[in-house]
């Protein structure tokens, strides 16, 4: 049995490879009833996605995925059911996009010092939108033959300590949650198992997230295995979090930093019975 919800996906407006329309149509064909578009630090694709969802007949949840620096590592906070016109949210996201633009230029400068030229222009060709990410640089490096695949691009050039690595300077956890709440949304920790935090640090993240108004965690993620899903379901109960689920779908191309496809839309298992769904309080027509 598969879930008919997918509350974490990306389009060309950040680092996905499908237009918002193509993404929604693919979700509809996969049997999704409720899709959230959660592009990184941007909401530009929501209007197009909403129009496509109306034509396709599926529900569209307005969302965003905000980059956060927490104790050194970068974590991602998804906002669901946001008002994309909220001023506080848009001002916060604009600051993150400004840093992303500087970071892209700095990656280009650092790669040029190692005789890799034209990286920013190449990354922008893949980006096609306002967001230029490390994923786009990785695709450029593969295209030019510097590496054989995405995983090697990240490992050899874009990870900590490598030629093209630039540390992130993102939002604080408190600010990210505040922007989401100001926009009327619910804050969700995305794919908690991907951060490689010890059990103690993960629980500290959960404690702080709850204390600043966070409401849910992604119990089910395209990057989690069944054992991880079960563990996170238990932690959701322990911390009184609602449970969310999302594929983190970016397109049919390889995952950032890996050489396998993203988890496909419409292939997630349902939330475990012991989890209270994040959509519990949504209007009946949405939930």
In brief:
This protein is an alpha/beta fold.
Fraction of helical residues: 25-40%
CATH structural fold name of the largest domain = TIM Barrel
CATH architecture level-2 label of the largest domain: Alpha-Beta Barrel
Summarize the helix and strand pattern as letters. Answer: EHEHEEHHHHHEHEHE
Radius of gyration computed on alpha carbons: 18 Å
Could you tell me the mean pLDDT?
93
Number of domains: 2
| Number of helical segments with 4 or more residues | 9
The SS-based structural class is alpha/beta
**How can the largest sheet be summarized?**
7 strands, mixed
What does this entry look like structurally?
- This protein has 287 residues and is of the alpha/beta class.
- The protein has two domains: 191 residues, Metal-dependent hydrolases (TIM Barrel, Alpha-Beta Barrel), CATH 3.20.20; 65 residues, DNA polymerase, domain 1, CATH 1.10.150.650.
- 39% of the residues lie in helices and 14% in strands.
- Strands 1-2-3-4-5-6-7 form a seven-stranded mixed sheet.
- β6, α9 and β7 form a beta-alpha-beta unit.
- α1 packs parallel to α2 and α5 crosses α6.
- It is globular.
- The mean pLDDT is 93.
Chart the SSEs and their pairings.
Blueprint: E1 5-6, H1 20-29, E2 34-37, H2 46-56, E3 59-69, E4 74-80, H3 87-112, H4 119-127, H5 134-143, H6 150-158, H7 173-182, E5 186-189, H8 199-211, E6 216-221, H9 226-238, E7 242-246
Parallel strand pairs: 1-2, 2-3, 5-6, 6-7
Antiparallel strand pairs: 3-4, 4-5
Characteristics:
alpha/beta; seven-stranded mixed sheet; 9 helices; 39% helix
